Amino acid sequence: MVRLRPFILHHWAGHYTVGTSFRFDLVAEALALAARHDSSLTDVVRTMLILNYPAGRANGRNAAKDALATAGRALALQPNDPEAHITMAWALLFASRPEEALTYVNSAMRLDPDYPNHYALFSAAAHYALGDLRAANKVLQEGLRRDPEATELLPVAASVLAQLGRRLEASALVSKWKPGAGWTALETAADKYFFVVRWEGDKARLNQKLNEGLALAALPIDATVEKLAADLSDGQGSEPYKTARYLGWYGAAAEAAVPALIGAVQSGNRILQKEAIIALGRIGPSAKKAIPALAALVDQPFIGFHAKQALELIEN
Q1: Which residues have a Cβ under 8 Å from the Cβ of 64 and sit 6 or more positions away?
Q2: pTM of the entire structure?
Q3: What pLDDT is attached to residue 31?
Q4: DSSP state, 219?
Q5: What CA–CA distance (Å, rounded) separates 316 from 311?
Q6: Handedness of CA 230, 233, 238, 244 (dihedral sign)
Q7: Is the Cβ–Cβ distance between 117 and 86 less than 8 Å?
């Protein structure tokens, strides 16, 4: 039974997060094995099933409520089980309650001082949801020091570093995550990366931000805001809509590119307009100069929806 626990948790919270295919056919087997023992593992696995398996959210079920209740049963059965604590943290993260989640992560780490790598992953996720990128980075770097082969930490650590503006360090982690991969493969990997915590409610955009940070970490290091903005203004490159998209990955750090993006919004090229509008929304309040250009498009077909969303992000 002791051996079964780390296998399930590592597979689910580790390998699944780095984009490998998840073996849902193992779920029934794991539950059958766990049910033979009077332990919290049955409810731990059931909680993870609710949090990840699409069928667990069907028919209008309240997945967060179900996950919290099931994780609570695991804790009640074995209060000193670190996996029960980390699973409760996972459920709380899903329910957009990161501060409470962090408490359970910390208790899991105290109960198991030799904790596996995914504990650091959930700790970083809690700090990330609280908006503390530096604390998230500290946890991830400590995790990588403890285990330099902790591949499940690499994409999240790279994303956080990129969002902190430390692109050289982020790029090095991406190279370790996907050794030898070219830009096209890295862009695809970043776009398809699936992080095991799926935030909902007011935290729903965090998953997208995490993927955008990873894409920024994978972007060639010479693709600076200044160069991309100049390329966009000068019409350089065969796919200017991609240039606009890349600028959006920088978030507020791309403020200097706002004039170039406004020009793209006014270009009349619908594909380019869409990417430029989305990028301005991602830049947020620092893109206030774009408000008149965006407001002029809210009633337009195809791009009006994106203009409204961008205005909300910029004005709030």
Answers
A1: 91, 94, 95, 200
A2: 0.87
A3: 61
A4: S
A5: 8
A6: positive
A7: no
